Write the structure tokens for this entry.
Amino acid sequence: MGKKVLITEKPSVAMEFAKVLKINTKRQNGYMESEEWIITWCVGHLVTMSYPEKYDENLKFWRLNTLPFMPKEYKYEVISNVQNQFNIIKGILTRDDVDTIYVATDSGREGEYIYRLVDQAIGVKGKDKKRVWIDSQTEEEINRGIKEAKELSEYDSLSNSAYLRAKEDYLIGINFSRLLSIIYGRRLAKELEEDKVSISVGRVMTCVLGMVVEREREIRNFKKTKYYKIVGTFGKEDGRFKADWKSVEGSSTFNSPKLYNDTGFKKENDAKDFILSLKDKKAIVKEVKKSKQKENAPLLFNLAEIQNECTKRFKIKPDETLEIIQNLYEKKLVTYPRTDARVLSTAIAKVITKNLNGIAKGYKDEDVQRYIKKMSEEKYRN
């Protein structure tokens, strides 16, 4: 019986799998090996799409007559600074004593793409390939993922989606960056007092930039408008309360041009005149309504939402947020960050609760304990 290879996306994740599989051998150069298992890892992307000059040296120069660049077959190459790890993985996956490959890159489109590029570049044949799909790095979940691993081919649709997105990014980035740089590069360089400027365009970055510009225009064009609300105090001292005035259908002020909206006036004098018109009049409570409202706890953050929230609260960049969450994920404190799922499985919920409680108890610093308690009381969602 041949050996089984398990390949992860990162070394830290590989170590978690090694613990669960009880592989106690020392970490070697790019992999770990026992009698039954070999565990190795990528270091993020090992293979990438080639630039146009790899197709034709003349495409190194940016000219309008070479656009659009749309190859019939796409070329890929190993990223130079991770060539060594790629060679290690290639040597392992093509070993004669290896018969099964367990793909345990991150459970998402990007993780799928990372392995598929490696598999494609190596040309792995004659091996049984299985996909480990997990939503956390708990022992229970890792064991389940290996036990229930499906044939890699069942994830071909996800792989196709990843390839298509990458090609879309590539074509938009290459063609529009070159086009706009050729047309507007000199003008922009002159404005910035630079010798040369290239304009970067991307499927995501350009849309985000457009949103930022649109929002900035709204902020700059915004004009503050004052309006005047009326607040009345009613009742005796033991039962005094305040109430906001509101114009309702049938009243003398309803749809009046003097109103800013149904709760206030455009001009202070108009508000004061209306108050005077109410002098010596009695306020009558016609109806009192009481109601109970049940509100469910909010769903968990997805990646985009928590990046947005961290930018607002802590002024940190989205990639910094992702890096922090990735570290927490590897410590089993949060779930996999690159998924749109907003609920917890029962298994991971137990482990995360246990780990968070353990951390809270482990701190001796009273200020840190108070901070953790405060986070809990404020019902942080992740």
In short: The two ends are 44 Å apart (CA to CA). Residues 378-382 have pLDDT under 50 and may be disordered.
